[in-house]
Design brief:
The structure is a homotetramer. By secondary structure, chain A is an all-alpha fold. Chain A is built from ten helices and no strands. Chain A is elongated. The N terminus of chain A is likely disordered. Chains in contact: A-B, A-D, B-C, C-D.
Amino acid sequence: MCGSEEPSRVKLIGQMETPGLSTTRIAAFSDSVFAFAATLLVLNIKVPEVLPTQLTTELPRQVFQLWPQLLSYIMSFVIVGIYWVAHHVMFHHIKRSDRLMLWLNITFLMCIAFIPFPTALISRYGAVQTAVVVYAGTLAITGVLLELLWWYATRGHYLVERELPDRVIRLGSVKTIIAPCAYVLSIAISFFNPKFSIIFFVLVPAFYILPSRLDRHLLGTDGK
Amino acid sequence: MCGSEEPSRVKLIGQMETPGLSTTRIAAFSDSVFAFAATLLVLNIKVPEVLPTQLTTELPRQVFQLWPQLLSYIMSFVIVGIYWVAHHVMFHHIKRSDRLMLWLNITFLMCIAFIPFPTALISRYGAVQTAVVVYAGTLAITGVLLELLWWYATRGHYLVERELPDRVIRLGSVKTIIAPCAYVLSIAISFFNPKFSIIFFVLVPAFYILPSRLDRHLLGTDGK
Amino acid sequence: MCGSEEPSRVKLIGQMETPGLSTTRIAAFSDSVFAFAATLLVLNIKVPEVLPTQLTTELPRQVFQLWPQLLSYIMSFVIVGIYWVAHHVMFHHIKRSDRLMLWLNITFLMCIAFIPFPTALISRYGAVQTAVVVYAGTLAITGVLLELLWWYATRGHYLVERELPDRVIRLGSVKTIIAPCAYVLSIAISFFNPKFSIIFFVLVPAFYILPSRLDRHLLGTDGK
Amino acid sequence: MCGSEEPSRVKLIGQMETPGLSTTRIAAFSDSVFAFAATLLVLNIKVPEVLPTQLTTELPRQVFQLWPQLLSYIMSFVIVGIYWVAHHVMFHHIKRSDRLMLWLNITFLMCIAFIPFPTALISRYGAVQTAVVVYAGTLAITGVLLELLWWYATRGHYLVERELPDRVIRLGSVKTIIAPCAYVLSIAISFFNPKFSIIFFVLVPAFYILPSRLDRHLLGTDGK
């Protein structure tokens, strides 16, 4: 927090249009939005109403039937987690900010903070096409905005450190764009069978959580 | 965070009435309120209730009809974002605090945290005059409080660094006061046609997000 | 944040039972709870439901009738603000922590996070004795816990800096205990007339926000 | 925050798969989730609806009958507090992160953010077996994940400082595993009498809050 601010402040003088908005501050504000959006997801899981006379038979059954809510809670929490990780890795390299980058970031956060709604929709209606399309659409737009943010910050090393290797920039781009592509594909699939789209939703996070050959390949640590 | 605290602490001894409330802390607390108020906005968008037999026909229609909720979500999120940016730029320059400044800030945050209510009102009733007036009124008061905060902190360079150029102070004042003026104007317009007021609500953010000739003029980077 | 941690870490080795819980971290966690509790208050203000045919006549009337909700929102937001200021001033001086202090603080935060409930109660039922007693009772307990925290931390300069003047310790004690006393008094008053209690609720914050002769007297900056 | 980052950054180069995710950042994000989950608990306590004519007789009775909600609020708040303390003590020692540790932590936070649901369930249905099992089950899984996190970080001093004494590692392990064991036991007990399980829920926190002989024994400060 301290060491990393020193050098950036020097460079800021020339480039930053909005003084005072150090990338440290932007990252801290973004963290709060990520944390709240993730925690708000739990409000989708409502306590079932059961008559006092049916508690022993009906309550377990109704609680068990909350599994779609639980699944969508886990799914969305993990997705917010993935975006948080990606955002942090990017802001580890981004050292300067300007007005456009700032607003790309705020728009990206607007999508993150919106996630509780499509999550509620899909947990209420499940594999219905409308719900699937809204869910996948939100996540696709979120991913595209993150890709734009990274593209804008790295082209010509505009807002990142000069020494950042090109393969790290490329790895960030490729890994970030895969999610929106997958979500657009899942929208296409939903026209045939929305249930297959949901299988997609579960597979996309796995790609990001597991260490992948792609990482090693693009980072050039492949054959070593 | 570190470098900037060192010099301020020295000056604080003489002026700050409430020791322990460094401007860093005040900014961090404010950030949380901004982030939380923005994230709470999503709770206004309710999942529509549709009968199981009408899912394919009725659900898309009802989800589509949520567009006023979505529009007001985006509008308010962007406005919170604008105030966050303005607040941060100000607290980049504000180096000391006293009791009155502290309470001007808490009152300003009280307005920010209130924004979810007028947002819910306008997303429920749209271009009805009452909703428009409450929405514009809240944002006008919020802006006036920020203007007051800046005016109090900068008069005679009371709480800001001595070297802060006057044109930066003036830029802050002028840019901040434009929003409340626009909102008061939109209240006046609502007596003729509340729909025009909503067009205003969409235009005001654009003024803040786009880089303007005003910035260059007041910052004296005009002809260079 | 940096400069203040250096000296405290040295002293910590001997005294802190729970390593890793620097007072900086405790204060940051507390800040989040304060900010969330304050922002959650807005959820008490519900959008009124009005028939489409009655929008122009009924909606302004119903929105206007939300004034008790608005008043209790402001009242509770300001009270959370006061406790936040008091907590920060204390943690400016508290340099070490131990297990008991940690749990006094968590219990205090439990009361802060509870405030949205009595606020909802009083904004729903107004000057009904039950609501007044629950509201005043919560705030009295909150204040007593803060007083306990300060008493525990300062007796024999146990957890505060050795150089902290006794008059600062006394000022903290006296100012903190006044609120619970006032709230207990307002409970007593509610047996005669709950409306007078609410006047009390509005006056207590004023005492904390305005600079007082008490400050100058106890801080010894009276005649100088 | 500053001093502790310097040495860790050097070691990070070799080990951390996800650059930019310093343990400081992870801890800060976790803090927000803890604070928010704890503050959301208050939403379970609903204001009772009473007819205006029955205010003096019915309102006190109905508010008093909220005691199960209040009890579960306190219980869950204290449990979140305990996990926060444990998490902080662990991250005081954890100096590096890798992808698996990151996701163990996110999964752990997913359980913390889930706590408002079982709390709502148990405050609504009390000592009904389903509610008890869901509550104890959530807390057991949360505890197991924290144990896993600690085990993964400390085996062979993988992610912690090399000088960390083995007895501190063991103390962390033993203390963390006791909670899930107790909760599994309380699930077993619920088959006989769910009320006894709730007594368990109240006793477990006491074990963590009170300083114990176990601490002194495992820390080797026993006979000294």
